[in-house]
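Appendix C. Worked example: PepSY domain-containing protein
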Amino acid sequence: MTKTSQRNRFRLKFLRALRPWHRRLGLASALFILLLVFTGVAINHSDDFGLDQTPVTQSWLLDYYGIPAPTHVAMFSVLDTPNLPALHVTDNLLWRGKRVIFEGTQTLISASYVTNMLVAIDAQQLYLFDTAGHLQETQNSSTGLPTDLLALAVVDNRVWLNTDAGVYRADEQLIDWQLMAPIKPLSWLIPNLQVDVEFIQRARSAHLNWERVMQDLHSGRLFGALTVWLWDLFALALLLVSLSGFWIWYKQKPPR
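Step 2, the predicted output written as structure tokens:
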């Protein structure tokens, strides 16, 4: 048997063995490509689809990401301003109706509407918003705000703060704070802790949107570090499919 015929027999055997693996790798790679295409298009058009503004509401997915329910949930009455949305606090988030308008660095204590503003406090800072919920100003000890805040009250459109050092009242512009004893007991804003389960679920959803899920799925990080290696194997499979397909075409092309 000549060397040429031996070479041809070896080439035929190799091609027969290569074709099944080429098909198997091609099928596996096709599923991977479909996933990448779907998630890639979703990410590229996230603004068009509103994924960055669409919270994840599925409890199992929130549990998978380790997002717990807020530990501090309260609603503040707006009986004096029934035409304005209710104010809620969930840990360090301030809600105006169903929309988060502020994320603080500490747990928020209280919030209320006052004249044409909205005021909220944590233990060390006071935040001023317009009635649409846009942050206008932040006050703290460097601006003359009392420290160690405990509660908030609004009486005759004047803001009062209860602190460890006593009771303070702001001037009409909410710039200067004066330590003073009120003539009559103040009605400090008491949060309503009876918040429905639906709102608590919405508060969890505020920490995760579908754009983040699509990004994690596209990169393989959604299922942990091991999946990133699996995605690398799929990428290697794509490379092998390309090389094996080229090899099969090259060896089977008719001579010129």
